Amino acid sequence: MGNIASTLALATEESALLAELCAGSEDAYNWLIAHYHQPIYSLLARSLRDPDVAADLTQEVFIKVFRGIRGFHGESSLRTWIYRIALREASNQRRWWARHRQQEMSLDQDVGEADSGCRMRDMLVDPEESPLDALMQAEVKERVAAALGRVAEPFRTTLILREIEGFGYEEIAEIVGVNLGTVKSRLVRGRALLKNELMVQVAVTQQEPEAGCESLYPAPAFEEAQ
What we know:
This protein is mainly α. It contains 10 helices and no strands.
């Protein structure tokens, strides 16, 4: 009964919020931005691996939300609707990149490795941790974020929605517009791809020579024969 009461309370609150948004309430718009801006930015940053583009698209998402709010009739939850708009913008951006990839040259090929936006939420660490523990945890999360960035679509988005954003299977199906079986198969495949990327990453790391070894043991000098 407690879950039912909680669900009804949330539905009532959302209906009230929607009424205020449709009426043009500035307070309602401010609440919506404050509540959803960071999650939407994080979703786009992880999906696109470019924090600047993610920031621009986040603004575009909310413009579309505000313009389309009167056409939203509660067919899904407000959160699901907003995430669906965000993923549509991300998909459009990826298609744009695909069309212009051969015409443009990136000035920063390593943006995925320094994508602080992708790790903003995950970099929060327990204040009781020692500096060494925090460093090790941050390094692990950085490796996972990098590996996730190499997982192909649509598996990456499905993993983000489930494992990071915490959506249920039915919600994911509604957001991305596929059936429940497809969501589950994408999760299975996505987890396998992520595991493979992590294993490759570990193997490469183990094969890399330690920096500075050459300077510690210089090659011996041979005197020219007399």
